[in-house]
Design brief:
Shape: globular
Strand content: 15-25%
Order of helices and strands: HHEHHEEHEE
Strand order of the largest sheet: 1-2-3-5-4
Largest sheet: 5 strands, antiparallel
Distance between the termini: 21 Å
Number of strands: 5
Radius of gyration: 15 Å
Number of helices: 5
């Protein structure tokens, strides 16, 4: 389901932002994990090259640290591959349509994994309608919409850019 709600039920919210504001890049933020029961990873993408493979590798490492990989079964393997695909699509969209991504956040609790990609772009992501499977390109947000529980866009008034978020079910 696509949405443009400013946040979802799994939104980080102001307490989460305070807890991880000073967390080192590329590391779990222990305060957030304890306070929110969520595991969190953040990757700065400013000035990086090979951004999409870098983001996928970062997500893969997070999934390994959180026990999603190596997958115990087909369902868990499929869930992990869905996460990697959604990361690729969100980061690629930021590269193609939004002046490049700034940061990638991945957080997880026992039920939901949340992916957030912040960028400097003013555009509004949306699945191409009508979706035409045989047409090249333009499938990214359709894929995100199909694989995720929910997704949306967060904008901060007076600040350029946005954060596109998506949530997937944690594997059982």
């Amino acid at each position: 389901m696509s949405t443009t709600r400013p946040c979802s039920p799994g939104d980080r919210g102001p307490e989460f932002e305070t807890a991880v504001a000073d967390a080192p890049v590329d590391q779990v933020a222990p305060a957030a994990t304890v306070r929110q029961g969520r595991q969190v990873r953040r990757l700065s993408l400013n000035g990086a090259s090979g951004i999409v493979p870098l983001a996928r590798d970062f997500a893969r490492q997070a999934l390994q640290a959180w026990g999603w990989l190596p997958a115990a079964g087909a369902d868990q393997r499929a869930a992990a591959e869905d996460v990697l695909l959604v990361v690729s699509e969100l980061v690629t969209n930021a590269c193609l349509h939004a002046e490049g991504p700034d940061e990638l956040w991945i957080s997880s609790d026992s039920k939901v994994l949340r992916i957030e990609v912040s960028d400097r772009g003013a555009g509004q992501p949306a699945p191409r309608t009508p979706h035409r499977a045989g047409r090249p390109g333009g499938h990214g947000m359709f894929i995100v919409q199909r694989l995720c529980l929910d997704w949306g866009v967060v904008r901060t008034p007076g600040v350029s850019g946005k954060t596109v978020w998506a949530e997937l079910s944690a594997p059982v």
